[in-house]
TrEMBL record:
<feature type="binding site">
    <location>
        <position position="216"/>
    </location>
    <ligand>
        <name>1-deoxy-D-xylulose 5-phosphate</name>
    </ligand>
</feature>
<dbReference type="InterPro" id="IPR036169">
    <property type="entry name" value="DXPR_C_sf"/>
</dbReference>
<protein>
    <recommendedName>
        <fullName>1-deoxy-D-xylulose 5-phosphate reductoisomerase</fullName>
        <ecNumber>1.1.1.267</ecNumber>
    </recommendedName>
</protein>
<feature type="binding site">
    <location>
        <position position="14"/>
    </location>
    <ligand>
        <name>NADPH</name>
    </ligand>
</feature>
<feature type="binding site">
    <location>
        <position position="225"/>
    </location>
    <ligand>
        <name>1-deoxy-D-xylulose 5-phosphate</name>
    </ligand>
</feature>
<feature type="domain" description="1-deoxy-D-xylulose 5-phosphate reductoisomerase N-terminal">
    <location>
        <begin position="5"/>
        <end position="133"/>
    </location>
</feature>
<feature type="binding site">
    <location>
        <position position="209"/>
    </location>
    <ligand>
        <name>NADPH</name>
    </ligand>
</feature>
<comment type="pathway">
    <text>Isoprenoid biosynthesis; isopentenyl diphosphate biosynthesis via DXP pathway; isopentenyl diphosphate from 1-deoxy-D-xylulose 5-phosphate: step 1/6.</text>
</comment>
<dbReference type="InterPro" id="IPR003821">
    <property type="entry name" value="DXP_reductoisomerase"/>
</dbReference>
<dbReference type="Pfam" id="PF13288">
    <property type="entry name" value="DXPR_C"/>
</dbReference>
<dbReference type="Pfam" id="PF02670">
    <property type="entry name" value="DXP_reductoisom"/>
</dbReference>
<comment type="function">
    <text>Catalyzes the NADPH-dependent rearrangement and reduction of 1-deoxy-D-xylulose-5-phosphate (DXP) to 2-C-methyl-D-erythritol 4-phosphate (MEP).</text>
</comment>
<keyword id="KW-0414">Isoprene biosynthesis</keyword>
<dbReference type="InterPro" id="IPR013644">
    <property type="entry name" value="DXP_reductoisomerase_C"/>
</dbReference>
<feature type="binding site">
    <location>
        <position position="151"/>
    </location>
    <ligand>
        <name>Mn(2+)</name>
    </ligand>
</feature>
<feature type="binding site">
    <location>
        <position position="153"/>
    </location>
    <ligand>
        <name>1-deoxy-D-xylulose 5-phosphate</name>
    </ligand>
</feature>
<feature type="binding site">
    <location>
        <position position="127"/>
    </location>
    <ligand>
        <name>NADPH</name>
    </ligand>
</feature>
Length: 395
């Protein structure tokens, strides 16, 4: 039987790459559900092409406009509205696999629903795991879900490890996540004050959504990935290390107990980790071009400097902090990046907003380790309010 796919965030960079891979294998995949936030035209075009059973829009007004258009064109798709629609689809009996490609903590409730319903859960939405942490992993375990990493670094680590998870702890000394260093790796730190959203989103190696592009420029993306790796592979924070590798050819590495190093390499193309998540434990064509070894000039490595990328180092601090610290980190960063993208905050102030929010909110944390995920979402909201106050004061 074909795998019935629900793609949450189908109009984004990961969503469209997922559809690109699925289109190469119509014998394997059936797209039954799509979702987007507010871009009606993009989702309508996908409904025409894929004729899914459901299309959901988290923005209710947008959903109404989509419903009118879908009816006018006589498409077979039922349109659902509001954030709850994503939760309903993620846990639906007629869905086998959920691609979680929403950006931000907004994707957490749907991820929890997929986890609890025991789905095959393809996780691109790293913020959901950064906020949900132990609760997210417990839901995966209790629901019997299969959690497959889509982030290229985590897919690389996953590809280097055997299928039997019970052997991982014994084998791994530590892991090294590679980072490109983003567009400002060599820029004069003093020149970063006046960086525009366009400059920050011009990534040297990857084409991605705007939020993750800004995160790559500050290296907060790698901080989120350190936290993501801690949970995906059940590692101590000190077992997760980061090295800058500007060519983005080595996608990450496992350093084994015997000092053997396992790495996964390839051209930088998200369709590779997406195809692996879709087909695991098999391998299918992804559409990516072959790695041309003879065309490679050199593979180089640098240590990330604290002065240039202070946000990166908050990952380990938040992981060692009280329960909920990583949710505060993520919320403050989402607010700061949104303010930067709408030109209400300087690029260099993103870090100050995150660091200040952590300073004010972390000492107030007193969550027990087994709080329901709703408490983490309430904390997310509180940290956002604090971050917005700080942003307003900076203006
Ligand atoms: P994007 O901005 O291109 O797309 C985001 C998608 O989510 C869109 O379909 C949008 O409609 C939807 N969306 C936005 N806000 C929403 C909300 N509040 N509720 C419901 N849906 C909403 O982002 P992207 O680059 O595709 O990234 C998606 C996720 O994948 C992020 O968590 C990102 O960190 C992760 N990721 C992306 C890449 C990449 O190459 N793009 C690589 C690794 C990880
Ligand atoms: Mg990544």
């Amino acid at each position: 039987m074909r795998q019935r796919l629900c793609i949450l965030g189908s109009t984004g960079s990961i969503g469209t790459n997922t559809l690109d891979v699925a289109a190469r294998h119509p014998d394997r995949f059936e797209v039954v559900a799509l979702s987007a936030h507010s871009r009606v035209d993009d989702l309508l075009a996908q409904c025409r092409q894929w004729r899914p059973r459901w299309a959901a829009m988290s923005d209710v007004d947008a959903a109404q406009r989509l419903a009118v258009a879908v009816r006018a064109e006589g498409l077979p798709t039922e349109v659902l509205a509001g954030p709850q629609a994503l939760v309903a689809l993620a846990g639906h009996d007629d869905v086998d696999s959920v691609m979680a490609a929403v950006v931000g903590a907004a994707g957490l409730p749907a991820c929890m629903a997929a986890a609890r319903a025991g789905k095959r859960l393809l996780l691109a939405n790293k913020e959901a795991l950064v906020v949900g942490g132990a609760q997210f992993i417990a839901a995966v375990r209790e629901g019997g879900a299969q959690l497959l990493p889509i982030d290229s670094e985590h897919s690389a680590i996953f590809q280097c490890l055997p299928e039997d998870r019970s052997t991982w702890a014994q084998r791994i000394d530590h892991i090294v996540l590679t980072a490109s260093g983003g567009p400002f790796r060599q820029a004069d730190p003093l020149s970063l004050r006046d960086v525009t959203p366009e400059q920050a989103c011009a990534h040297p190696n990857w084409v991605m959504g705007r939020k993750i592009s800004v995160d790559s420029a500050t290296m907060m993306n790698k901080a989120l990935e350190v936290i993501e790796a801690r949970w995906l592979f059940d590692l101590a924070p000190s077992q997760v290390k980061v090295v800058i590798h500007p060519q983005s050819i080595i996608h990450s590495m496992v350093i084994c107990r015997d000092q053997s190093v396992l790495a996964q390499l390839g051209t930088p193309d998200m369709r590779v980790p997406i195809a692996y998540g879709l087909s695991f434990p098999e391998r299918i064509a992804s559409g990516a071009s072959a790695l041309d070894f003879l065309g490679l000039k050199s593979l180089t490595f640098e240590a990330p400097e604290r002065a240039r990328f202070p946000g990166l180092f908050l990952a380990w601090e938040a992981l060692e902090g009280p329960h909920g610290s990583t949710a505060v980190l993520n919320a403050a960063n989402e607010e700061a990046v949104a303010a930067f993208l709408s030109r209400r905050l300087r690029f260099t102030d993103i870090h100050d907003v995150v660091a200040r929010t952590l300073e004010l909110e972390v000492p107030r944390l007193s969550l027990s380790l087994d709080v329901p995920v709703e408490a983490l979402l309430a904390l997310d909201e509180q940290a956002r309010r604090r971050a917005r106050e700080i942003i307003a004061r900076l203006n």
